[in-house]
Amino acid sequence: MSKLTNYAENLLADFWRGQGFVIDADFTVALLSVAADTGATKLTGTGYADLTVARSLANFAGTQAPASTLASSGSSHQTSNNTLWDFGTVGAGGWGTMNAVGLYDAGDLVAWAPCDARTLIEGDAVSFDPGTVIFTLGLAGGMSDYLSNRLIDMVFRAQSYTMPANTYAAYTTTTPTNATPGAEPGVGGYARVAIPSTLAGWGPTQGDLSTDPSTGTTGRISNRAEIAHPEPTAYQGIATHAELWDAASGGNFLCWRAYAQPRTIQPGGATPPRYPADAFGITFA
Questions:
Q1: pTM > 0.90: yes or no
Q2: Quick one: 59 exposed, middle or buried, by C-beta within 10 A (0-12, 13-18, 19+)?
Q3: What confidence tens digit (pLDDT) does each residue in 269-278 have?
Q4: Per-residue pLDDT tens over the stretch 23-76
């Protein structure tokens, strides 16, 4: 499975916090001997050169199928190379041992995908057929297909996506999936709760709940202020999951997670879901 680096997670975290998403129009594609969330080591040697690949629909596949050049509409949460990535022939002295392929934004590693470990010796031909280098984007939890498609197309395929001014916390009485949200109560005064998509609304990945840019290594952002759903005025059922949406009603389903302990929501009973600061987290992975 491919990995986002801390650099990319922080870019996405601060995009969620309303700071936009700024990245080069082209990726530098490199062969790596070592790859980790914190960075990587490129191969070197006679005749070795990185590739330049534009972030585009033509060069990276939609989530619905390898080789697709349409906007993403699938459920795989994956993209892959649409073109042959040909590094040519290994020169004298070899290039070392290849363990991964990485995508760079200028000098910063964005994501890397492992490949079969191989020591590259003089005369070896090194290339990757279309569809063989696969990158994923998700959350440590449930990211909806809708959101994964928008973010994959933004990061890898240079398509515009604007973060909504607010996201809205919801709770459900049925189990959601990445494809389908759960059922919200819709009775007894139930309402979603807005969280501003700003530095004031979400704390950074370093976990200090400040309004500073994200510089951490966790990929996690969290609410800076308490989130409290209204007290119920009628029986609402048993709340089992939390969700985030991009509208106060209707809208697009973004992500979800299960509660550790379901609760019955009714007047005079258990309080409706309430999250103190730092309790409602999103972790990019």
A1: yes
A2: buried
A3: 777 899 999 9
A4: 999 999 999 999 998 889 999 999 999 999 999 999 999 999 999 999 999 999
* Residues 135, 60: Cα–Cα separation, whole Å: 10
Let me know: does 75 contact 82? Beta carbons within 8 Å: no
Distance CA 72, CA 61 (A): 8
d(C-alpha 148, C-alpha 226), whole Å: 27
Q: What is the dihedral of CA 206, 210, 213, 214, to 10 degrees?
A: 20
Joined tokens for residue 253: 């389903």
Classify residue 52 as exposed, middle or buried by CB count within 10 Å of its CB (0-12, 13-18, 19+).
exposed
Which pLDDT belongs to residue 141?
73
Token reading at 214: 């994200």
- Angle, helices 6-16/145-155, rounded to nearest 10 degrees: 120
Q: Specify whether the CB–CB gap between 43 and 90 falls below 8 A.
A: no
- Mean local confidence (pLDDT), 137-166: 93
